[in-house]
Write a structure and sequence with these properties.
- This protein is an alpha/beta fold and 641 residues long.
- It has 23 helices and 17 strands.
- It has helices at residues 24-34, 44-52, 55-66, 75-82, 84-98, 105-110, 136-141, 146-168, 190-197, 202-218, 233-246, 257-262, 284-294, 385-388, 395-409, 423-435, 455-463, 478-484, 490-502, 520-535, 554-557, 589-604, 631-638; strands at 7-12, 38-43, 222-226, 251-255, 277-279, 306-309, 315-318, 364-366, 369-370, 391-392, 413-416, 442-447, 466-474, 506-513, 541-546, 565-566, 581-582.
- α3 runs antiparallel to α5 (84-98) and α17 packs parallel to α19 (490-502).
- 48% of the residues are buried.
């Protein structure tokens, strides 16, 4: 069998994103086609949601809800059944509107009479700054935000329906984190095995039908299942289960971010009841080796970074050492051929102009470089390939890829999905775009807020099409930033983010709480820094994440260096990532976290920026900040901002 005669189908399992395809299959499909393989792709995550959120899907949802005992009818289910005729009449029109195929429907949606309104619409009351009796969305969107207002209302409507699916059909259902508790740092495969053995519900049956349709359409020899997140694992295994029952000769392969992070010590043979091979890290080289094996051109002993179940029923890891990685500038150009780019849903969950980018609009996702050029942060999985192996492509190659993608998709928006895009590479990219006459792209991505990003470079990036930048401030404390080995200071972050903001670039800050040895005083001071960054126009949005210690990070590998001790890990034949630890400070970070998240939500809407940060800590007494109220303003003034 020649390479050209071997057909490979890459599938995106539920759930990843609804506004744009997750890029893994696009990269693999483009790469495999460049090597002569008949490679195809399909997004079953989008297909599942579109099937469930249709007139026929809602009819099945009503049938499932009505079959429940009345005592199990939640308020959301009761509201759905009472308003069912309105849901049935509006669902396909709303979907078409969110796909950009029926823009004038915005006028009807904004009347607040077309859509039934469930519990999610109560969030409209949380926009605190509008006057009593005033339309809260008028404050959030202004008089001219017709489409945005309607898309936000339509998104709330879909979230209501997701709640009904969760209450009436599958308590694990979510648009993003679907059944993730079955997989996240799960030492035992038992929960997943039980879920896979359970009678299929409406969601399972729908996914089963979509999988069989994909097999009929493409007739693949090999199916690749990419699982970037724990919330895609259950559905991926359901898909594999369906494939094995329909045609056991089809080879199933599992890979992606979840596998690369959490299954590195895999010993659980039951996974291989559904999956034939599991590959680690960058997929190009393992897949070439595996396809040669499937063609009889390579022995099993010469597979690369691949788990198999051997003849004795035990899991074996095979990694033939003589195979070089595919250079990053030779992985090829991703292709979206086969994905329905006109059917993705442009949702608007968050009103903040920076936050909305993650779910609003269809972005072509590209990588500037493989890995992280810094790879020192103590909370990060710096020992893993996707961080540790840094490799960049030339600006010429990157712009060639950009132009090819624009030609294929007709869309000029790009999200660079690097761990941290290198300043040198971004500068070269901007120069090359401008040298070629700048194809008028818009782009955004993640960086480290390092001093290399001068006002001049920020302006050059803006001129090349940069509209937004995200980066890790983590805990806004110089002591903790040093302990994290971030290589930045709070004042440096202020100057860099201000340079981006002054260039007209939106700035998002990733924030962290609960880092080892972080005290209540550290937390209060960090929030004060964040308040001042918002007040001085340095950042436009942010999100507080709870620190989690992972086995692959410096904290997880050298806890004594960070003043903590690790809790014993259970015997884990399946997933392993997060590890518990004991911090002698004894701080209740969960309590503090609720205050931090409330504060950041309000700061993003311009609320409370002139007030004492202690007002947000309603559940506990906290000390006064030790940070001067004009610390950031003085740092900016000293730098000439």
């Amino acid at each position: 069998m020649s390479a050209a005669s071997l057909r490979v189908l890459s599938l995106i399992p539920p759930m990843t994103q609804l506004n744009t395809p997750y890029p893994s299959t696009a990269y693999l499909t483009g790469f495999l086609r460049s090597r002569g393989v008949d490679a195809r792709q399909q997004d079953l995550a989008l297909a599942l949601v579109l099937r469930l959120l249709s007139r026929a899907g809602l009819a099945q949802l009503r049938e499932a809800a009505e079959a429940l005992p009345p005592a199990r009818h939640s308020a959301q289910v009761q509201q759905f059944l009472a308003e069912y005729p309105r849901y049935e009449a509006s669902i396909e029109r709303v979907i078409a509107f969110l796909q950009g195929r029926d823009a004038t429907l915005a006028h009807r949606i904004n009347t607040r009479t077309l859509l039934p309104e469930g519990a999610r619409f109560a969030t409209l009351d949380s926009y605190l700054s509008h006057e009593e009796g005033e339309d809260p969305l008028a404050w959030a969107f202004g008089a001219l935000g017709l489409q945005d207002r309607a898309r936000h209302l339509a998104t709330l409507y879909l979230n209501d329906l997701a709640d009904v699916l969760r209450d009436a059909v599958d308590e694990r259902f979510e648009f993003v984190r679907y059944a993730e508790k079955l997989a996240t740092s799960q030492p035992s495969f038992d929960p997943l095995a039980e879920a896979l053995a359970a009678p299929p519900n409406l969601v399972d049956r729908t996914l089963h039908d979509l999988t069989l349709a994909a097999l009929d359409e493409h007739a693949p020899d090999v199916v690749l299942l990419s699982v970037p997140f724990p919330g895609a694992v259950y559905a991926a295994l359901r898909i594999a289960q369906t494939i094995k029952r329909a045609n056991p000769r089809i080879v199933t392969v599992l890979g992606g971010g979840f596998v690369n992070t959490e299954l590195r010590e895999l010993r659980e043979p039951r996974v291989f009841d559904h999956i034939d091979y599991i590959t680690l890290d960058a997929g190009e080289r393992p897949l070439l080796a595996l396809l040669e094996h499937c063609q009889g051109k390579r022995s099993k002993q010469r597979l690369v970074r691949t788990f198999v179940r051997d003849e004795t029923g035990q899991v074996r890891y095979i990694n033939f050492a003589g195979e070089p990685e595919i250079p990053f500038d030779e992985v090829g150009t991703p292709t979206w051929d086969g994905l329905p780019l006109d059917r993705y849903l442009s949702l608007l969950d968050m009103l903040n102009p920076m936050n909305r980018l993650w779910s609003d609009g269809r972005w072509n996702k590209l990588t500037v470089a493989h890995g992280c050029y810094w790879k020192k942060c103590s909370f990060c999985d710096v020992s893993l390939d996707y961080i540790s192996r840094y490799e960049a492509a030339s600006a010429e190659v990157l712009v060639d890829r950009i132009e090819a993608v624009v030609a294929e998709t007709g869309q000029t928006g790009f999200h660079f999905v690097d761990e941290a895009a290198p300043p040198k590479a971004l500068k070269a990219l901007a120069a090359e775009l401008q040298r070629r006459g700048n194809p008028a792209i818009s782009w955004w991505g993640n960086v480290r807020f390092e001093k290399t990003f001068t006002p001049a470079l920020a302006q050059q990036l803006a001129d090349s099409g940069c509209i937004a930048i995200s980066g890790g401030l983590e805990v806004a404390s110089d002591r903790l930033l040093t302990l994290m080995n971030k290589g930045v200071s709070v004042e440096q972050v202020a100057r860099v983010t201000k340079a981006f903001a002054d260039a007209g670039i939106l700035v998002h800050a990733y924030l962290m709480y609960g880092f080892p040895t972080q005290t209540v005083q550290d937390t209060v001071d960090a929030l004060e820094y964040v308040r001042q960054l918002f007040l001085n126009g340095c950042i436009h949005s942010g999100f507080f994440h709870r620190f989690a210690c992972t086995v692959h990070s410096p904290v997880g590998q050298r806890p004594q260096d960070f003043g903590v001790s690790l809790l014993p890990l259970p015997d884990s034949p399946f997933a392993m990532n997060d590890v518990g630890f004991v911090d002698p400070t004894g701080v209740d970070h969960d309590l503090l976290g609720r205050a931090l998240k409330k504060a950041i939500y309000n700061y993003m809407h311009g609320i409370g920026l002139d007030q004492d940060v202690r007002q947000w800590f309603e559940e506990m007494r906290v000390p006064k900040t030790t940070v001067g109220r004009h610390r950031i303003a003085k740092a900016l003034a000293a730098a000439g901002h």
